[in-house]
Design goal:
Helix content is 42%, strand content 14%. By secondary structure, it is α/β, with parallel strands linked by helices. The chain has a single domain, classed as Glycerol-3-phosphate (1)-acyltransferase (3-Layer(aba) Sandwich). Strands 1-7-6-2-5-3-4 form a seven-stranded mixed sheet. Helix 1 packs across helix 2 and helix 7 crosses helix 9. It starts with a helix and ends in a 12-residue tail after the last helix. The C terminus is likely disordered.
């Protein structure tokens, strides 16, 4: 049985020049900026806030690429980088892509069109064995609901032959809701789920097939949020919206 790393190595051998060109497209970062960012995140998430992180065993070893799919409700969602615990990359809206964020792996993305430059950078990051954070909702949820997942991240994972790892962030909507400039003190929960792969997707899956895989990832996210809701005693607005809509949200002690 071949591993993802071995398959990528085989492809690299067969298309060396193309892969070398792709790897050269990995966005430049700044080691000192990463050190400062991790120092700040430790102060924020481990000292000012109390952060509970579980599921790190599902992260790939250094040198293996993966997409970390997060739910996005707050600026505190950068806690996913703290949970990762090593330098990585993240897709961010172009309007917020200030230079310091690019120094720590921020990849500017035009949200209202197909951004080929961003896609090439993301493919390069994954080919280089890095973890790439993506919010499949495409924007921040202002009311806490889990918005529909755009299937673009699934296409990217299949193209790069890497897993999608769901990462649920719970409690950020309470500590730093829209309109608040600085987080109130409290607890934050992060749970990383088992990686998802679709080995039978084929070389050219249809839009419907890609959407089905994106929906599967969304359901995995809801399941993680349901676990955290029970564990924390803090209600999840995402699950409340699912129940109100009559969806088959995972059960929890908060279900009516």
């Amino acid at each position: 049985m071949t591993t993802p790393s071995a398959r990528r190595a085989a492809r690299s051998t067969s298309s060396g020049s193309d892969d070398r060109a792709l790897l050269e497209a990995v966005p430049a970062t700044h080691p000192m900026a990463y050190r400062l960012a991790f120092w700040f995140m430790r102060r924020l998430f481990d000292h000012y806030l109390t952060t509970h992180i579980s599921g790190r065993e599902h992260l790939p070893p250094p040198g293996d690429g993966a997409i970390l799919a997060i739910n996005h409700t707050s600026a505190l969602d950068y806690v996913a980088g703290h949970a990762l615990g090593r330098p990585g990359f993240v897709g961010i809206k172009r309007e917020a892509a200030y230079r310091p964020l690019r120094w720590i792996g921020g990849i500017p993305v035009k949200r209202d069109e197909q951004d080929m430059t961003a896609l090439r950078s993301m493919r390069a990051v994954l080919a280089g064995g890095h973890v790439l954070g993506i919010a499949p909702e495409g924007t921040r949820s202002r009311d806490g609901r889990l918005l529909p997942f755009d299937p673009g991240f699934v296409w990217l994972a299949l193209k790069a032959d890497v897993p999608v790892i769901p990462c649920a962030i719970h409690g950020a909507h309470v500590l730093l809701p829209p309109g608040r400039r600085f987080p109130r003190r409290g607890q934050l929960w992060v749970r990383i789920g088992p990686p998802l792969r679709w080995p039978d997707a084929g070389p050219r899956p249809s839009r419907e097939a890609l959407q089905s895989m994106a929906d599967e990832t969304r359901q995995a996210m809801l399941a993680l949020l349901a676990e955290l809701e029970v564990e924390s005693g803090v209600a999840s607005p995402a699950l409340a919206w699912e129940r109100a809509a009559g969806s088959a949200a995972p059960p929890s002690s908060f279900a009516s």
